[in-house]
Design the sequence.
């Protein structure tokens, strides 16, 4: 059975065609919620949130491998919402933004495209449809005011379906928080305002902000460009396109982007199942 894989979250359909419904504490807005110990989020009315532990539980129930980086998940309180945002923490050290004017979007895209085509050979062996990089849906862009790096890659599966991964890296003192927006390509423009609203309510806690860097803090071994290409490779490794894919990455050094397949129908099924239970304040 095909398993749709999406960046930080994989949706797994059970043999009976039913979606797992773990007991989760969905917190409803408006309220302030914690993203681990390092950040917080102003959750607006009409949105619901899972904390780190419940996000990990949900991911594992869906067949994904949680690695402890999860900070939380947000989606719309409406059962018809098809989007969600996953927040994760990466304590890699302070990422210098010295290369903000030297990001070669064309070279990055070509590397990801080549790696994805290599990964399609593995997909074919496993009976998984191929995914092909079409281009940037949103080229890499760094905001010096917010210290946020954003980009989105448009992909197309062998059946002609378009899919999008929209990524944000929110730089902090000791690393970054990643925010990954997931939705079908036809809906991503409608989902984007939800992400923008949520990010407007995101903030690092005192002592963890990018501007609070001090000499002696750990420095990341790479810059902004590597966050983009590294994000592609990390997505593949995290969602585990089987051990063969990880070996492929290590052997060829190519970068692979993992897209969702059939995301709208999948998300609607699981959200309707989840919201058939009570959402707690």
Sequence:
């Amino acid at each position: 059975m095909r398993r749709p894989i999406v960046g930080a979250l994989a949706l797994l359909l059970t043999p009976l065609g039913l979606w797992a419904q773990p007991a989760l504490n969905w917190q409803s807005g408006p309220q302030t919620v914690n993203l681990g110990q390092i950040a917080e989020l102003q959750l607006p009315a009409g949105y619901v949130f899972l904390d780190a532990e419940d996000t990990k539980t949900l991911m594992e129930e869906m067949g994904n491998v949680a690695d402890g980086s999860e900070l939380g998940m947000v989606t719309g309180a409406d059962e018809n919402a098809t989007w969600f945002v996953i927040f994760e923490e990466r304590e890699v050290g302070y990422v210098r933004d010295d290369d903000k004017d030297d990001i070669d979007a064309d070279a990055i895209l070509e590397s990801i495209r080549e790696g994805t085509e290599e990964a399609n050979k593995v997909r074919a062996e496993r009976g998984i449809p191929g995914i092909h990089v079409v281009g940037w849906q949103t080229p890499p862009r760094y905001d010096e005011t917010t210290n946020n790096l954003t980009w989105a890659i448009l992909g197309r599966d062998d059946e002609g379906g378009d899919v999008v991964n929209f990524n944000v890296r929110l730089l902090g003192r000791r690393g970054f928080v990643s925010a990954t927006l997931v939705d079908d390509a036809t809906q991503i423009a409608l989902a984007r305002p939800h992400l923008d609203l949520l990010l407007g309510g995101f903030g690092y806690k005192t002592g963890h902000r990018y501007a609070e860097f001090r000499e002696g803090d750990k420095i990341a071994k790479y810059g902004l460009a590597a966050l983009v290409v590294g994000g592609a490779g990390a997505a593949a490794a995290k969602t585990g396109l089987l051990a063969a894919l990880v070996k492929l990455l290590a052997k060829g050094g190519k970068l692979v982007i993992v897209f969702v397949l059939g995301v709208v129908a999948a998300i609607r099924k699981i959200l309707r199942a989840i919201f058939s239970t009570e959402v707690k304040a």
The longest strand covers residues 131-143. Helices lie at 52-61, 105-125, 188-200, 224-239, 242-252, 263-274. Residues 1-21, 232-281 have pLDDT under 50 and may be disordered. Residues 105-125 form the longest helix (21 residues).
